[in-house]
Amino acid sequence: MHPILANQERLAIYMLAWLIFGGMLAAVLALPNDFLWTESLALAVPLTVLYGAICLSSWYLCRVFPLHKTGYAQLLLLYVIAGLLTSSLWILIGNGWTLLLERLSLFAPLNARFIAKTPLLVGVGFILFTLTVAVHYLIITFEATKVVEQRELQSRILAQEAELKALRAQINPHFLFNSLNSISALTTQNPAAARTMTLRLADFLRRSLRVGAQEFIRLEEEISLTLNFLEIEQIRFGSRLGVEQMINEPCTNCLVPPLILQPLVENAIHHGIAQLVDGGTIRLQAEWSGSVLRIRLENPIDTDRPRSRRSGFGLENIRKRLKAIYDTDADLRTEEKDGCFTAELSLPAQTSRAFSSRHRADNGSGLRDVSNN
Amino acid sequence: MRKIRSIIVDDEELARSIVHEFLTPHSDIEIIAECSNGFEAVKAITELKPDLVFLDIQMPKLNGFEVLELVDKNLSVVFVTAYDQYAVKAFEVHAVDYLLKPFTKERFDEALERARQKVARNESFPLSEVVADARAPDVPLERVLVRDGSRVHVIPVDKIDYVEAQDDYIAIRFEGKTHLKQQRLSVLESSLDRKRFVRIHRSFILNVERLARIELYAKDSRMAILKDGTKLPVSRAGYEKLKGLL
To answer: Contact, A4 vs A59, CB < 8 A?
Structure first.
């Protein structure tokens, strides 16, 4: 879309400017007494306004040859030629106009006097053309900035939405309301414990929000967040929930997508521990074998539980995320055997972000796309 | 004045303790038991016959609704739950008292006051209506619960061969055993998966997987022969339903 033609307000300002140019040109022609004022106005004003309309076409040149992508010499050559051609065309039209005016015999013969002014007119036409080109470039730059700003704003909004969605999805309402109920109970019985739990919950929520906005975090941070969550659940479940961890030290530097373990521990609690009268122990293991980082989560499970209470949704979400980030290089496997549920994540063991950016460039779909789903 | 005998059922100790704490100032309430899972709750309610139960919904083994299904409904219930979108809707519809965790003392006292009035009127709990509405839609029943004294048997529905109506009871046949349950056959029928269980006769629901063949005995009189040789009558409507499935 032409930025001036498409906008009525801009078009009006633009044409008004050309009307003024027309007046000015009329003055230039009339002042040396070569033309009468009426003659110069009748010549200059319609011709200049028409020239304004013609100069609008320079926008197409501006679009094809963007400022920052075209060399100065090339630009100079281009607009000198284009300017001379356009102004010459204008003079031709002007010539026709004088002949027409002569034919109508409204004024004394104009054509000869007009031709005498050709060099001046070509110069004026050239300057006006260049001016229009400059205006077009200005508008293009201005609009590009606006588009970039808008896109930035939009992507910021989208990112925030994704964050909120992620938070809503990862903060299980059972977890939140039961935790708050535990705090409510502790307030009278053990105020210090109530405070501890409030702080842990606040810490967990704040950290979830923060890491949720990141593309990758260190495994150390992810595990610390997971343990944070389990500590809160331990207050709720008391002796029913045990936690064991075996983390191979060097792996803690590996990068993982944030909150990738969260749905797994939540399942372990909700479908495992919470369904068992005597509870049990959740085991978290991480090890580095070759180029693969393996994270295992084990929890006891009630073998008689109804099928509708079995998990599935959270796991599907993790798989989708892994596919989007690592394509086929990552995997989530689950197994249920003898009352024990095991979930094992295998990810490429990476300690720098190089991998992620390369991969994102490859398949074009990043974390954001997934969290929008 | 006779005290209102109450039981608190919740799998979380802290959750039980806050109900306990809020009940303490009410001298007309006597807490006779606290249970941490559904089996314990069924046992305690059956043996102690309380007037009032504070019942959590999400619990190991049996949820709150399953507990109520197995006990004498002649009691008042206040449900206590953290989050359950379907159940809360059902509670609203049927004016069942419930508390959403965490709850205030005022909210608790209100619910208790209404429960007191129900105890005084000897109102029994409208279980089947509430349960029908509280279940998540489109989730067919996966297990049938029966109580034998204070013991609970959990029968996964795929182990059931067939169910027969016997007066006020239904007899559930599975693995060569029979368990009786006080329920109407039509209530069970409506909660079972219609693709797997068919009401083949006024008095029989059949697990379709057990069917070996259908034999014609007389005009409009058929028999379903099960894989173990059992013969069950098939009504004309039942035969149409079976034909639609097979």
So the answer is: yes
Among candidates B39, B61, B142 on the partner chain, residue whose Cβ is nearest the Cβ of A308 = B142
CB A181 within 8 Å of CB B82: yes
Instruction: Given the cut 0.90, state whether the ipTM is greater than it.
Output: no
Contacts of A308 in chain B (CB under 8 A): 136, 139, 142
pLDDT in tens, A158-207: 766 666 666 555 677 888 899 999 999 999 999 999 999 999 999 998 88
Nearest chain B residue (CA) to A273: B60
Q: Between A362 and A32, whose confidence is greater?
A: A32
Please name every residue paired with B178 in a beta bridge, in sequence order, or none if there are none. Answer: B173
Separation CA B66–CA B56 (nearest Å):
11
Q: Is A188 at the interface with chain B, CB within 8 A? A: yes
Contact between B112 and B98 (Cβ < 8 Å): no
Contacts of B189 (CB under 8 A, 6+ apart): B197, B199, B205
Measure in Å the smallest separation between the Cα of A167 and chain B Cα atoms: 17
Does the distance separating the beta carbons of A185 and B18 come in below 8 Å? Answer: yes
Mapped to the 3 state alphabet, what secondary structure does A37-59 carry? HHHHHHHHHHHHHHHHHHHCCHH
Cα–Cα distance list, A238 to A221, A280, B13, B64, B70 (Å): 25, 11, 8, 21, 28
For each successive 10 residues of chain B (246 residues), what is the average pLDDT? Answer: 91 94 95 94 94 92 87 88 82 85 95 92 78 71 85 89 91 91 87 90 93 85 90 90 84
Q: Which of B18, B39, B102 faces A177 most closely, judged by CB atoms? A: B102
Per CB-CB distance under 8 Å, the chain A contacts of B64 are none
A315, A271 in Cβ contact below 8 A?
no
Query: How is residue B12 written in tokens?
Result: 């979380």
Q: Which of B14, B18, B106 would best serve as a mutation to test chain A binding (most A beta carbons within 10 A)?
A: B14
